[in-house]
Amino acid sequence: MIAIVKPQSIKGHIMAPAGKSSMQRACAAALVRKGITIIHNPGHSNDDNAAIGVITALGAKPELQPDGTLKITSNGVQPVNDAVNCGESGLGIRMFTPIISLSERTITINGEGSLVTRPMDFFDAILPQLSVGIQSNNGKLPLVIKGPMKPASITVDGSLSSQFLTGLLMSYAAAGASDVELTVTDLKSKPYIDLTLKVMLDFGWKVENRNYESFYFPPNPAAPKNGTLEYTVEGDWSGAAFLLVAGAIAGDITVKGLDVFSTQADRAVLQALMSSGAKISVQTDKIEIGPAPLKAFHFNATECPDLFPPLVALAAYCDGKSVIEGAQRLTHKESNRAITLQEEFGKLGVQIDLQDDLMIIHGGKGLNGATTYSHHDHRIAMACAVAALKASGEVTIESADAINKSYPDFYQHLQQLGGSVSLK
Known about the structure:
By secondary structure, this protein is an alpha/beta fold.
């Protein structure tokens, strides 16, 4: 798909998309808990659909209800297939692999697109310590897993991604881990672990967070109660960050459906927007944002690396050199996002320098129209579209359908706000 975005002011009200981080965790929790789970505001991105496919292969029965809720019936991890496919979801593969190891059945775990090139050797090192057999393709997919997992007190490296820890926390809880401790070194993206622990608590599991250095499962844990449980997927700060930046650049808009007290890491976009001088009003039920003279900002995105793309679009319109820390976290995404952002925004006339862990964006000089390429990365496609709203000419985005991974309604939402977006 090709998207063509013409410069255009925007205005209006929009509802934030459902959070795929929350949705995927809810699917995993609904699988490992026994009973019926009703999920309100379920997402329908490619990653969300991949999670539904995985839990279906592992024995759960998801059913979309007439009222739009998702009903999931499960009796725990009881695979009905010998293989599962996590699509292109990094969270999915890292979270579900330990959960799959709860079964004594041999399961092959596959993925698609960029996921097949991402490192998975974390599991080669960790799962054998938990009595799980594993074969990988030199540290990459496919993985062949043979459980059942036996929770034990071990130490894990949290420097690559917190998503591995999310899977271990959920699988330990589901296995009834008792008086064991997961010690973590150099944990990144702590807010995502906060989200995991919040979802687990909502589903009936208690884990003691010892200052993010270890996570303790107390003796004789109480199992979640059977019966029906209801869970509401909160609005997605990752997707909404692009809407908020669009408002700061191109017009007065109101974004609803976001929890300003959320544990989602990308809620930190508010700090960057305020630092840039954007006109913003944060209320409990809505966020109003609009353009103002924008100034360069300094922001540390180490704990929220998914904010790099929207913040680069913001920085491009800020007067001066904006600095974003945490660039080394961008290597193992759908693309190498640091290089990709430098390349694609370079086509728009924006200079980006990379210095070790820093990304320096030279902003305030105007953006020109150009043909850009998403590199099959959903966040790059959205960043280019947002940046196009006040460029001097139209911006073409090739492989624009990459947005389906996380925010399939993105272009439609821009159109609803008055943006000029045509799809071919």
